[in-house]
Amino acid sequence: MLSMFFFFLPGPQKLPQVEFTCTKALLCVCHTFVQKFLHLVTTKTTVRLQRGNRMKRKLLIDVDTGVDDAQSIMLALASPDVEVLGITCCHGNTKLENVLKNTLRVLKVCNRLDIPVFRGCENPLLAKRRSAADYHGADGLGEVPDPKAPSLELLQKKNAVNAMIKIAKENSGEVTLVATAPLTNLAVAVELDPSFPKHLKALYIMGGNTESRGNTTVCGEFNFVADPEAAHIVLDRFTCPISIACWEFCCMRSLPWSFVDEWFSRKTEKAKFLKEISALSMKKARSPEYEKEITAGKGFNPCDLFAMAAAVDDTFITESEQVAVTVELMGAHTRGMMVLDYMELLEKKHKTSIIKNVDSEKLKKMLLSAVM
């Protein structure tokens, strides 16, 4: 286009004033056109590069892989804006050996066996080890064996606690830790290295309760009751931003059975896997005993998903409450119960964000994407 303009420009001979003025104007137009064209190309290229090199949200996931942990891991792996740096395993829903196997099975289904998996704490700090076999099955994944399950030889040599500390320090201020298990690994990490929490960007926890409604003891939620001392240490010594999806909140956000059917009906290996491992939990969730236990209407209650979705997407949480919290260690009926200090009698320097409401439709979209 520019060559056409210059082809029609007169030579060096003396030009009348009018012709000179026209030529000068034409040159100005050409110059302006070139500037705008280059600006447009540069801007589009810059935007494209920025999108391509966009910083992903770095996650470290601590699990006791049962059914809802598996669902949570799959949700995280399906998010294009998330990079999972590692998965640390802990006792909880089932014994540690099963947790390790289950985690690798989930990664296999997602074609992500490249993600490092670390062996963590086998037992709580002081409490007797518990399990949730009645809900998750004896193996933690609905008692649906996989004869071609990945070998435990794929596990990393470094233990989970040291791995947590190392990953956090190497990515200081960038790592979001999602804890959907008893908090034993986290408590040992802060005991081993008191600076560990300072390197975290944020911590999201599924655990605890706010209305004294228990699911394991009269007043205690499973993850906190499974290791009360660990929960107490974490809530006392972690000063990074903490968000908690507690038991009662998760119950109030149970997924409608109609959506669960849609979720598991996708014709993919991921959906088939989730449907198989969730069958036992779904049967339990439909029982009169369980419906009486939870605080809302009928539906499927994948607790861990709420903490994970909040960690993956900042806009997922629509309402939260800032309050100092701790964990009761002594009560005959209240050991492991989360205590909210509304009167600020504990004089704690940091508060915790208790999730009160979320975008349920956004969660459904995430879950459908996770099985594609």
Q: Any overview of this molecule?
A:
The protein has two domains: 16-54; 57-370, Ribonucleoside hydrolase-like (Inosine-uridine Nucleoside N-ribohydrolase, Chain A), CATH 3.90.245. Strand 4, helix 7 (184-192) and strand 5 form a beta-alpha-beta unit. The protein has helices at residues 2-7, 17-52, 67-78, 96-109, 133-136, 160-170, 184-192, 222-226, 228-237, 247-252, 257-264, 269-285, 288-293, 303-312, 360-370, and strands at 57-63, 82-89, 117-118, 175-179, 200-206, 242-245, 317-327, 338-341, 352-358. It has 372 residues and is α/β, with parallel strands linked by helices. The chain is built from 15 helices and nine strands. It is globular. Mean pLDDT is 88; it is low at 1-16, 18-23 and 40-52. It is 44% helix and 15% strand. It comes from Oryzias sinensis.
Brief account:
It is built from 15 helices and 9 strands.
Q: Which helices and strands occur, and which strands form pairs?
A:
Blueprint: H1 2-7, H2 17-52, E1 57-63, H3 67-78, E2 82-89, H4 96-109, E3 117-118, H5 133-136, H6 160-170, E4 175-179, H7 184-192, E5 200-206, H8 222-226, H9 228-237, E6 242-245, H10 247-252, H11 257-264, H12 269-285, H13 288-293, H14 303-312, E7 317-327, E8 338-341, E9 352-358, H15 360-370
Parallel strand pairs: 1-2, 1-4, 2-3, 4-5, 5-6, 6-9
Antiparallel strand pairs: 7-8, 7-9
Pfam families: IU_nuc_hydro (PF01156)
Family: Belongs to the IUNH family.
Domain Inosine/uridine-preferring nucleoside hydrolase: 59-364
